[in-house]
UniProtKB/TrEMBL annotation:
InterPro entries: AAA+_ATPase, ABC_transporter-like_ATP-bd, ABC_transporter-like_CS, ABC_transporter_ATP-bind, P-loop_NTPase. Gene3D superfamilies: P-loop containing nucleotide triphosphate hydrolases. Residues 20-253 form the ABC transporter domain. SMART domains: AAA (SM00382). This is ABC transporter ATP-binding protein. SUPFAM superfamilies: P-loop containing nucleoside triphosphate hydrolases (SSF52540). It comes from Methylobacterium terricola. Pfam families: ABC_tran (PF00005). Keywords: ATP-binding, Nucleotide-binding, Transport. PANTHER family: ABC TRANSPORTER ATP-BINDING PROTEIN, TAURINE IMPORT ATP-BINDING PROTEIN-RELATED. It comes from the Bacteria. GO terms for molecular function: ATP binding; ATP hydrolysis activity. Belongs to the ABC transporter superfamily.
Amino acid sequence: MLAVRPNPLPAAGPAGATLLSVNGVTLQYKTRDRLVTATYRVSFDVAREDRFILLGPSGCGKSTLLKCVAGFMTPTEGDMRLEGRIIDRPGPDRMMVFQEFDQLMPWMTVIENVMFPMRRTGRFPGSEIRDRARRATEKVGLGRFQDVHPHQLSGGMKQRVAIARALAMEPQILLMDEPFAALDALTRRRMQEELLQLWDDVRFTLLFVTHSIEEAIILGSRILVLTPHPGQVRAELDATAYSHEHQGDADFMAFTRKINGMLFGTEETAHD
């Protein structure tokens, strides 16, 4: 396990208890020409140890919702609460992994990149930081690459460094914004499998954004389907019965078609 000391944040509750509550959130931002409404009165709850997926077409506001959970922006209407506390700023209790591979410092080695946020936040004693970073890189299968620089890594390996860096901080929730979208199909599938294995080992809480129906079903325990712009809740679905192993099964394909119909407005709004 990555944890080697008590988390300085409030003690974690039991698995299944609500960790994140999003309550009637409308998000707006200004462009040069107009005011854009990204989401309209979106509500959902994320439980501890959940793998919660925000799924929707481009422009539905799912990435904007994630940025709001991260504390990078505030709702126009409604609120977001982590363990009952209103989110109004970034914090180490929420760590984000982006799609872009350039999120790593190119002049730092792998282990230095993983150590960087721990040093900046001061959450951990200096004597523990390197050991925590080493354990985190080993957890994501990069133990032999701790001393190399990002330009020597493949895209999938860079994403594993970003995941290790986030998990080493012991966040209450890991936020991932289409982190595998730029990878080739084979690497993307391998990263999905590795993320599920990592979750099985560590049991962190995951809030994951994607526009891929198959990825949402494979990775998610719950899926929130959002309508096209502005994003509203179309449905919330239980996906715990599906995995890579079921991808060719009739039930998996039927579930995929069901979600596809929701995204394109051919099914009624439903909560499963």
